Amino acid sequence: MSLIVGALGTLSFIFGVIAENKKPASGTPITGKDVVICKYPADPTVALGYLSFGFLVASTLAGGLSLFYPYKGKSIPWPALFQSTSFFVFFLIALGSTGLAATMLLWPTITEHKHLVSNVHYNLETSCPTAKTGLLGGGAFLALDSALFWLVSLMLADNAREDYFDDVKGADGVTTDYDDADAVIKGSA
């Protein structure tokens, strides 16, 4: 699962950076009778922006599902995962960075799409704008960060699973390595 999350996050990053680099600075205004028609060069910015967002969503779904997927036929309750403070913190950071990345990828992509579709302006002073520069690139880096935070959360979930199963074994009367170490320390004192 970690390879899938990492690969999808990397693809989101790559498509976002290419979309940022291919975005035109502005369109060409063509003045007509009481209107300005903006002609934009053909570029893949909108398609690449949506692809980047799509791979971000896929990476997030794979990351989120992998956290709660029962490995080796063993599942643990969700509250047991969230008892680990470090897991909880990184889970929230992964969610937050995903939301911010999605916003920074979608906002300029939708704006650019709107500029391409609504290219007739009645303001004769228009300069044929494009979406704000830098947002797609920033969103791409946040998408990569998001995938990395999902990977860290996955590692911390593995630790929380091990702790949970160690506690369950200890509660069943089976001693764990920690119980043996405590007995040795108490016996020597």
TrEMBL record:
Keywords annotated in UniProt: Membrane, Signal, Transmembrane, Transmembrane helix
Regions that span the bilayer: 50-69, 81-107, 135-157
Domain of life: Eukaryota
Protein name: CASP-like protein
Family listed: Belongs to the DESIGUAL family.
Listed Pfam families: DUF1218 (PF06749)
GO cellular component: endomembrane system
